[in-house]
Amino acid sequence: MLHIRRNTGRIFRCLRPAFASSQRLACAPAVNVIDRAQCSQSYGVTISRRFYSSNPAEGGENGDQAPKSNEPPEEIETSLVQSEFNEIEKANIPEDFPDVPILAVSRYPLFPGFIKKVDITKDATLKKLIRKRVDLRQPYVGVFLKKDNDNRAEVMHSISDIHSVGTFAHILEMRENGPVMELVLSAHRRIRMMHAIEQSEIDKQQKPTVNQRRSGNKGRGAIGKAAQIVNPVTTETSAGAETAEAVEDEKQPLLYLGHTENFKHVPASIQDDKTKATMQAIVQTIRQIVALSPLFGQQIHLLLHPSNNVSENPVYLCDLVATLVQSSNPEELQKMMEEPSVYQRLNLALHLAQKEKTVAELKHSITKDVEKRVQEQHRKYLLQEQLKIIKKELGMEKDDKATILDRIDEKLKKLTVPEHAMKVITEEKNKIQFLEPHSSEFSISRNYLDWLSSVPWGVHSKENTDLTVAKTILDARHYGMKDVKERILEFIAVNILRKKVGGKILCLHGPPGVGKTSIARSIAEALGRQYFRFSVGGMTDVAEIKGHRRTYVGAMPGKMIQCLKKVGTENPLVLIDEVDKIGGAGFHGDPASALLELLDPEQNANFNDHFLDVPVDLSQVLFICTANEVDRVPGPLKDRMELLDVSGYLAEEKLAIAQNHLVQQERDSTSLNADQLSITQEALEILIKSYCRESGVRNLQKQVEKIFRKAALKIAERPAEDPAGMIEVNADNLEDFVGRPKYISDRLYETTPPGVVMGLAWTAMGGSALYIETVLKKRNVDEKSDKDGSLEVTGNLGDVMKESVRTALTVAKGILSKEKPESQFFEKAHIHIHVPEGATPKDGPSAGVTLVSSLLSLALNKPVAQQLAMTGEISLTGKVLPVGGIREKIIAARRVGCTRVFLPAENKRDFADLPDYIRKDLQVQFVQQYEELFEHLFE
Ligand code: ADP
């Protein structure tokens, strides 16, 4: 052991760069300790002790050469080992010893100068042979590598099973450990297997001569005795059994003994530059491997023998490399063994060392990588733990649970939580105390508590009770919309009288772009309420309104609770957009019913969200819904709302909106002031008349936006030295900004021919003028012919409208029979009725009177009065029934320049409700029976 430690320094030196060139390593002889990392160092000690022992009882043949002192101290032993032992041993090794027992080994050949431990477990004959040899003081064996690595047999059948070149080894130690015979072999030189020795020879050899017996008994000495000392009992007791085994084995021809001869090298001179360079390269490579793999370095410490100067002994250097490398396969190593030329062997050794280096580099980089990752994680963990402790020490942060609960308590302090909610919160807080912070239940509980404490229990924004302020705000933002503004002022008045904040559900319905959504924001401002908007258009999942149950992964409360969390008050204004487009009942429930629960004043004081599972009071929320078609709002929902009609605008109104609001909005967003851009009234009028004829002002807003954008580009493109002059957009240059007009003429017909009458229609986009064209397919109607006429209808009409055509025909026939009893026109004529804009689907009964008029006009071949429009459902007896959308229809009639309009008598009130500016300059006649209309049709 000690000699190994002492040599460590030298070995390192040997691998230092300086060594390669100048420093020589003069190592003392000693036994190397190796069994390819199996042979324990203890062998080293045992071996050395035995060979230098001066005890006469153990002395044997070498006894006289050993130091005389009894049990020398270890230091002295070591020095003996280093200086003398190998010499003693070498002196006793015969130069020529051809017949040796054969030990076949697997995987790694044993190279000269190194030690290997070999166990014989099964083969009794071999054991017996070895024992005999040791007794005869011929403790030598030939160690050969098996050709087949998977061959587990201890004794081969023929020399073809082993490689021909092996090593001549000296048995340093033999131990009998139960059935196992352990041999420690020290290899001396290469030998070549010549031929196997016959069984009979072996038998002869196993019977020692008298002389041998004598000398054997006398000279059992070191090995023989040592073996008996190690395990005398086993050896003695198992002898009988082994003899039986041996008899069994002897029946088969096996390779126990072989005749060998010493292997001849082709030496290489270390004076030769090539040899020297290769050796230096090998040492250099080994040094690099040691730098990469400390384990390799340790192995060298164990292997490198001080007596062998690697830099002067190329043979030893090659064998050292072959013994050291782990990555080479048995064939490569055996090649090293068999190579006669030492120079070639050096090249092979260099190759093996380089290969080992590559593997070591790879291993090193992998280890480094893994190490780095582990270290980083470890470092992070340590720092985090330290941070936690530091924060705790400074009182900055308590542990997770305490922090969460503290934060929740802090939030709850500012709220007036009702008793039923507080109960749930307390229960949940108790529950969380017992939960593991990393468990999923913990995060669910934590999330739940977070939401429970986020509801603004008992928090209200201060409601505006000043009517003038509210009015000013509403007027400033929106032109017109009288009904809506009045309704809001009434609402404020009621709140003032009640001295309490209340809720309500209003529904603003009308065509797009009339300001339904934008006024809701102004209302919120006027009332001093927080504003929250969500759209239910296309919504199909109830959970969006009522929330998910907490058990689902990623569960969330519904929109209303999210709204309360966001606005932080219990009395916000909530705008629910597009209620007429809410999805129907389906797989995820019926959202309309959920919305009903939310909006029903009877129920919403205790609104129950699935996630929160605690009733929340929504009775103070002002809900404003918007819809384009009020008829499509689900009935029960419509029932609970107060409907406010926001119909389209007239050209004058649009002009006012554009001048007072839209232009100003654009000025704000583009920063173009009045000195840079102005739009003349005339330009705006053309814009309204020829570009944007829809009911709302969204399109108009887009056009104004376009003008501002184009102007901004023009101004930005001007050179800096020519400061911008004012751009004026007028009737002449309007096309430069917004392109060619979309509508050239106001109407389809300037003067209507017989059979063409203007009706008034209502669509979700507002009112429009709708012509009904009726023509005779066959010009000359032969009233005497007995063939009946026909009626063809086109123009993408719905079922109701098609039925309306048939009703109108009957009514027209009735009227014509009164007016012109002799006429057979409707019976014989082939009539085609068409409603233009065939791509637009049309349906509804309100074109009844127009259809009758158109048919009569054709039948009488008289054009109806010009600038005339009409609307009304017709009954079979000629009654004119009321229709909807009067405001939109009147606006549309004015837009196309009509001066006379026929309306059903029952729509009188609707018309009366219209503002004066819409009604003025319009001659409206209310009719109950169609005849009343017919009287004036051709005036
Ligand atoms: P809707 O919700 O009815 O479809 P919006 O409220 O979105 O329409 O209005 C579209 C644009 O028209 C908004 O920029 C709005 O300011 C403007 N607008 C509509 N009506 C008016 C109005 N009466 N006065 C001022 N601006 C209006």
From TrEMBL:
<dbReference type="InterPro" id="IPR004815">
    <property type="entry name" value="Lon_bac/euk-typ"/>
</dbReference>
<dbReference type="GO" id="GO:0007005">
    <property type="term" value="P:mitochondrion organization"/>
</dbReference>
<dbReference type="GO" id="GO:0003697">
    <property type="term" value="F:single-stranded DNA binding"/>
</dbReference>
<dbReference type="InterPro" id="IPR008269">
    <property type="entry name" value="Lon_proteolytic"/>
</dbReference>
<dbReference type="InterPro" id="IPR003593">
    <property type="entry name" value="AAA+_ATPase"/>
</dbReference>
<dbReference type="InterPro" id="IPR027503">
    <property type="entry name" value="Lonm_euk"/>
</dbReference>
<feature type="domain" description="Lon N-terminal">
    <location>
        <begin position="100"/>
        <end position="357"/>
    </location>
</feature>
<dbReference type="Pfam" id="PF05362">
    <property type="entry name" value="Lon_C"/>
</dbReference>
<feature type="active site">
    <location>
        <position position="889"/>
    </location>
</feature>
<keyword id="KW-0720">Serine protease</keyword>
<keyword id="KW-0238">DNA-binding</keyword>
<dbReference type="GO" id="GO:0051131">
    <property type="term" value="P:chaperone-mediated protein complex assembly"/>
</dbReference>
<dbReference type="InterPro" id="IPR014721">
    <property type="entry name" value="Ribsml_uS5_D2-typ_fold_subgr"/>
</dbReference>
<keyword id="KW-0645">Protease</keyword>
<dbReference type="InterPro" id="IPR046336">
    <property type="entry name" value="Lon_prtase_N_sf"/>
</dbReference>
<dbReference type="InterPro" id="IPR008268">
    <property type="entry name" value="Peptidase_S16_AS"/>
</dbReference>
<dbReference type="Pfam" id="PF22667">
    <property type="entry name" value="Lon_lid"/>
</dbReference>
<dbReference type="InterPro" id="IPR054594">
    <property type="entry name" value="Lon_lid"/>
</dbReference>
<protein>
    <recommendedName>
        <fullName>Lon protease homolog</fullName>
        <ecNumber>3.4.21.-</ecNumber>
    </recommendedName>
</protein>
<dbReference type="Pfam" id="PF00004">
    <property type="entry name" value="AAA"/>
</dbReference>
<feature type="region of interest" description="Disordered">
    <location>
        <begin position="54"/>
        <end position="77"/>
    </location>
</feature>
<dbReference type="InterPro" id="IPR020568">
    <property type="entry name" value="Ribosomal_Su5_D2-typ_SF"/>
</dbReference>
<feature type="binding site">
    <location>
        <begin position="510"/>
        <end position="517"/>
    </location>
    <ligand>
        <name>ATP</name>
    </ligand>
</feature>
<dbReference type="InterPro" id="IPR003111">
    <property type="entry name" value="Lon_prtase_N"/>
</dbReference>
<keyword id="KW-0067">ATP-binding</keyword>
<dbReference type="InterPro" id="IPR027065">
    <property type="entry name" value="Lon_Prtase"/>
</dbReference>
<dbReference type="GO" id="GO:0004252">
    <property type="term" value="F:serine-type endopeptidase activity"/>
</dbReference>
<dbReference type="GO" id="GO:0016887">
    <property type="term" value="F:ATP hydrolysis activity"/>
</dbReference>
<comment type="similarity">
    <text>Belongs to the peptidase S16 family.</text>
</comment>
<dbReference type="InterPro" id="IPR003959">
    <property type="entry name" value="ATPase_AAA_core"/>
</dbReference>
<keyword id="KW-0547">Nucleotide-binding</keyword>
<keyword id="KW-0496">Mitochondrion</keyword>
<feature type="active site">
    <location>
        <position position="846"/>
    </location>
</feature>
<dbReference type="GO" id="GO:0004176">
    <property type="term" value="F:ATP-dependent peptidase activity"/>
</dbReference>
<dbReference type="GO" id="GO:0005524">
    <property type="term" value="F:ATP binding"/>
</dbReference>
<dbReference type="InterPro" id="IPR015947">
    <property type="entry name" value="PUA-like_sf"/>
</dbReference>
<dbReference type="Pfam" id="PF02190">
    <property type="entry name" value="LON_substr_bdg"/>
</dbReference>
<dbReference type="GO" id="GO:0006515">
    <property type="term" value="P:protein quality control for misfolded or incompletely synthesized proteins"/>
</dbReference>
<feature type="domain" description="Lon proteolytic">
    <location>
        <begin position="751"/>
        <end position="939"/>
    </location>
</feature>
<dbReference type="GO" id="GO:0005759">
    <property type="term" value="C:mitochondrial matrix"/>
</dbReference>
<keyword id="KW-0378">Hydrolase</keyword>
<dbReference type="InterPro" id="IPR027417">
    <property type="entry name" value="P-loop_NTPase"/>
</dbReference>
